[in-house]
Each structure stands twice: as C-alpha cells, then as structure tokens.
Amino acid sequence: MHTVNVEIQANKPYNYPIFIGNGILEKAGSYLKRYIKAKKLLIVSNQTVYSLYGEQVKKSLLAEGFNVEILLLPEGERHKNINSLEKIWTKAIQYKLERKDAIIAFGGGVTGDVTGFAAATYLRGIDFAQIPTTLLAQVDSSVGGKVAVNHQLGKNLIGNFYQPKIVIADTAVLSSLPLTELKVGLAEVLKYGFIEKTCGLNKINSSFIDFLEKNKDLIFSLNPSILEELVKYCCELKACVVNKDEKESGLRAILNFGHTIGHAIEKCYGYNNINHGEAVAIGMKGAFFIAGAKNLIDENYVQKSINLLDDYKMSYKIDKNFTPDDLYESMQVDKKVQAGKIRFILPVSPSEVRIFDDISKEEAITAIKTLY
Length: 372
Fold this sequence. Notes:
This protein is an alpha/beta fold and 372 residues long.
C-alpha cells in the first residue's frame, strides 16, 4: 500500500492522506476510524457500485462501530445536478446527521463531486471522505477538494473547494470497469503526462510519458503493481499542484489541460452520448493543434502526442450535430473565463504547459474544425 499526503499551505487545517493499494477496501472502516470522529455515516453511492462492493464496505464500517445509512443516486454526468444534491440533503436531514457526523462518497467522479458539495453545505459543512471506484476518480476528481454540480448552461459552475478527511483508493475495484469507463480515466492519466514538469514535483527523475508508452499493455490488462504505481504518481502530481494552489488562483489551472474545449463539448452534447474522458481527449488534441499553429511547440511533439492519445484508443471525433461556433460560444460560459477572456492551457515544450488568454476566436475555431 502507498500513501500520498495532501498538505494545503497558508496555515489552513487541511492535511489528509490518500491510501492507495490493491484489496484495501475491506479495511475501509479501520482507515476511516483513524481520521473521522463521527458515529453516524451516510454512504452515497449508486446501484452498480453498491451491488459490487457495498456490503463489503458496510460490513467493515459496522465492525468499527459506525452507524451506517445508504443513499443510492442515479448514475451519469447528467445527474450531477441540484436534484441529486437535494436528495443527499433530504436523506441527511431524515437520518438526523449532526455536525460531528460524516458523509462518504463511494463511487466515481459524479458521486464524489455532488456528495462533497452536499457535505460542504449541509449544516454549513460536515466531514466527508472519498472512496473512489473509477480510475478517473482515483487519479483526479477525488483529490484536491473541488466539489460541484452542473448547470444546464455550463459544467461545474456551482460548487466549492472542500477537502475530504481521507481518500481510500482500492485499485482492485478497477477490474470491474468496462473498457469505456477505464478509458475515461486514462484520458486524465495522459493529461498528467503532458503537464508533468509544470506540476513542480521535486522528485521527478524520469518521464511519465515514457512510463505510459512502455506500460500501455500492462495498464490495459490491469496489472496490479502497475496500476498502483500509476494511481500513486498521478495523485502525487495533483497533490503537489493543490498544495501550492488550493483554490485555482494560478498554477492549479494547468490541471484543466484539454478541459476548455472538453467541457464545451460536454455541454453541447447536453451531458449525454459522450463521456468526460472522450471530451477531454478531444480537447487535448485541440490544444496541441492550437499550440502547433502558434509555433509554441514543434510538429514532431504535436504528432508524437497525438499518436500517444490514439495508441491509448483516444481517437474520438466530434459529431456534426453542432458547429465550431456553437462550441466557441459554450467556451465563453466556463468557470475558467477571466475578464471575458477564454483561458487555454497549451503545451510549450514536452510535458510543460502554460496558461494563455490571448487565443483569438479564429485560432480556436481553426483548431476545433480539425476535431470533427
């Protein structure tokens, strides 16, 4: 088992561990007991996850003396909304959760985001923990305290920064993921390869891109030791960024590489018929095309990066149901917009990115047209 620590700066009382290992779900109760003082726990999950692992987790929690109540939410990005938030609030009130109690997010990124936001707002904030069960959640969304719901006019526009007390990532549960869901997480994993050097992790002594190229087949075959190493390193990279910039005042924006176009794609699809990983993969390609056209990077690096995305089966295209202008309009309603300017995170050298707010509409549209 590995442990990664998130230690927020500026004298804030956030310091929590991310436990990563194969088969650690059965010890969830003992881990939570060390970091949460609650007696009552509300577990928020969905039917698929709970049917596979729910009883195992519940048994572990009961063995440690917790009182447990379960709430199962509908699955999918389109359910990351105010309706799901109200369901959690209502269940918490009915269960009579008090400020000393806690809410546990047990599922993927959607579950973690909406549950964390519910915990941040219920009784003005009670403890919560993350038990992520998808690759996307384990390497990205469960770490760093971003919690939110979507609005019909844009993704993650309503939310907060609210840190969990503990994250428990059991890589064994990834074996139950369908290939499409695994690839959602792999899009975010590849993102870390493209931004690695900018994250500022002092211990970097090898290329994550090289690791991903060398171990692609082992990753797709869910090799246990490779998966643990993969999740651990992605969490280390994200923790390094979050430790320096909890609330995205600067550096943390690099974690949105590929998301400017990606979030706009999701919105145009109405959060249906495309998943987050597909949209981000397309968005990363768009960022490479913009950077190449502006001569920020050479054509060899553009092609090598596009090839890596395609090698990981990220060869997605945008449907022709909406126009490049529709996408550009959606990008203008995004939480990353500042002073009316759309911000793009673009590559400037291998594994390094920078934030740009001077990309013209013509440059963006030209790149978007290559993504159909």
